[in-house]
Amino acid sequence: MAKSQKVTGSKAARNASKTLKTSSSKKSKTAAGSALSQTRSPSKVTSKKAASTASKVLKNPKASSAAKSAAGSALSQRTRSVKQSAKTGKISRKTAKSAIKKANRSK
Predict the structure, then answer these.
(1) pLDDT tens digits, residue range 18-42?
(2) Residue 11 Cα distances to 19, 72, 93, angstroms
(3) Least crowded by CB within 10 Å, which of 35, 79, 86, 90?
(4) CA angle at residue 95 from 29 to 34, to 5 degrees?
(5) What is the pTM of this model?
(6) Nearby residues of 16 by Cβ (< 8 Å), 6 or more positions away
(7) Could you tell me the pLDDT band of residue 50, with boundaries at 50, 70 and 90?
(8) Please, what is the Cα angle at 43 between 46 and 95, to 5 degrees?
(9) How many other CB atoms are there within 10 angstroms of residue 104's CB atom?
């Protein structure tokens, strides 16, 4: 998997820690855990599942601001989209196969 080159900032890390300690929402804790695990690790990236969960936390009007901060941090550390990866010429085999399938379905 590609490097993110981003790390969780100190404020987002504090919010992630607070979310892990106080929140009862599994989704909030998943996003916070992902963000916290990337505090000093630019080589780690948010998984697809954690990114999806973080997106749901951001959309939830009942989520706390600390949970949303942690979710935003986790989501910002997801790897680049296919278009950006294609510009550099680096595209995974799985992504290429998926793009081909989509193109064939639209014919």
Answers:
(1) 888 988 788 988 888 888 888 887 7
(2) 12, 12, 36
(3) 90
(4) 15
(5) 0.61
(6) 8, 31, 32, 33, 35, 36, 66, 69, 70, 73
(7) confident
(8) 55
(9) 8
How many residues are present in the chain?
A: 107
Say how far apart CA 42 and CA 29 lie, in whole Å: 21
Q: Report in angstroms the alpha-carbon separations of 87 from 81, 82, 84, 92, 100.
A: 10, 9, 5, 13, 17
**Contact, 5 vs 42, CB < 8 A?**
yes
The secondary element (H helix, E strand) that includes residue 54 is helix 48-59
Q: Please report, as a single letter, which amino acid is at residue 16.
A: A
